[in-house]
Amino acid sequence: MSTLDQAALDTLFFNARTHNGWQDRPVDDALLKRLFDTLKWGPTSANCSPLRIQFVKSDAAKARLVPLVMQGNQEKVRTAPVTAILGMDMAFYEQLPKLFPHTDARSWFAGNEEVIRSTAFRNSSLQGGYFILAARALGLDCGPMSGFDAAKVDAEFWGGTTVKTNFVCSLGYGDPAKLFGRSPRFEFDEVCKIV
Amino acid sequence: MSTLDQAALDTLFFNARTHNGWQDRPVDDALLKRLFDTLKWGPTSANCSPLRIQFVKSDAAKARLVPLVMQGNQEKVRTAPVTAILGMDMAFYEQLPKLFPHTDARSWFAGNEEVIRSTAFRNSSLQGGYFILAARALGLDCGPMSGFDAAKVDAEFWGGTTVKTNFVCSLGYGDPAKLFGRSPRFEFDEVCKIV
């Protein structure tokens, strides 16, 4: 397998930042489709792929989402070209005959609420990680947020479905002038060991 | 922000596969350190960075892990050069004065068990996504697995700590001859919409 060069690593990890302010520059629908058609290839347990996405882009949809996020996040959602609501389908296992056709994987989950919950949450979050890095790979900046009223977002955007909100993430072209200073990270030896 | 070229996208997403068989080729400790020092820059909520990792590499450590994974995963762990145990520190918020020093973020979590649990699980899983893609970016193949006895892995590897296991992931150089056929993914319109 080939490796990425330093410029690509910089785009994904070293120079990428969580953005709070956005340039007045739209994001094409075609790019949102390309984002999903990239991130979807990342691995999930039994290919369960529980992530469901609503890309909030119109003024009407933003007006529904803004009051449901924490006050400190409202201006970010209002000014971002797009804010994605990343949800998890709690009935993801009903899709396994299609997604994992070579065995009866549906039976591993059906009726086992604790395994359903943890699998949906773990794997939709993994897919959230793929989402953020795929967006950066395609030239977008991200502003992920977990400060919102999940019950209200569920009711407003996923009502009548089996989907629950995991987190939300603004997308666009960030304004570097509005970045905060970068927070420190752990050193390897503080949180890892080789045994 | 610059974009990645097709070769880099292929390495991360389009051509990368979950591996089940491994070449007899070791993984240097320096590369494991570089892996962490890359993935750690991915964003987490309030920079909480709950991921903790044990890289199981020695024969002695493999002998402790192999019996705790499902039968179908035992040969994979036995033959992989390294299997990482990705854990989440349920006391992650005690590190926030260091990781998020500009405000009292510790108080957002302390005593609120449900927020602690969901934040640790969501963000360590996000970091798991960064782990997989950073490993691929650095030329490694991955074999993530959630089929193991979590209580036993917790007791054996994280006993006496506040860390719980999230999932495990073998690392190395995959044997393409042992790949399964690739499973299908959703089309955009099946699971996404632009509103």
TrEMBL record, chains A, B:
SUPFAM superfamilies: FMN-dependent nitroreductase-like. Its cofactor is FMN. Its EC number is 1.-.-.-. GO terms for molecular function: 3-hydroxypropionate dehydrogenase (NADP+) activity. It comes from the Bacteria. Keywords: Flavoprotein, FMN, NAD, NADP, Oxidoreductase. Pfam families: Nitroreductase. InterPro entries: Nitroreductase, Nitroreductase-like, Nitroreductase_HadB/RutE, RutE-like. Residues 23-161 form the Nitroreductase domain. NCBIfam families: PRK05365.1 (NF003768). PANTHER family: MALONIC SEMIALDEHYDE REDUCTASE RUTE-RELATED (PTHR43543:SF1). Belongs to the nitroreductase family. HadB/RutE subfamily. This is Putative NADH dehydrogenase/NAD(P)H nitroreductase ACFOEN_03845. It comes from Piscinibacterium candidicorallinum.
